[in-house]
């Protein structure tokens, strides 16, 4: 099966890293100095990129693909 590595932006990686640390969308927004809407947009794009529907599946995919250590 052909596999293409997910393409994520540096900001999406920051959001994903904070998610993996257990931060909520509101906490991530405060840390990054952006709106909750922006954070949720990044999360939605990440879910699309990894083809998952739940936050927990996104986090698991990030570790599985070695995006997060």
Automatic annotation (TrEMBL):
SUPFAM superfamilies: C-terminal effector domain of the bipartite response regulators
Source superkingdom: Bacteria
Cited Gene3D superfamilies: Winged helix-like DNA-binding domain superfamily/Winged helix DNA-binding domain
GO BP of this protein: regulation of DNA-templated transcription
Pfam families associated with the record: GerE (PF00196)
UniProt domain HTH luxR-type: residue ranges: 1-66
Keyword field: DNA-binding, Transcription, Transcription regulation
Transmembrane segments: none
GO molecular function terms attached to this record: DNA binding
SMART domains: HTH_LUXR
Keyword Lipid metabolism part of the UniProt annotation: no
Name by which UniProt lists this protein: DNA-binding CsgD family transcriptional regulator
Provenance organism: Rhizobium esperanzae
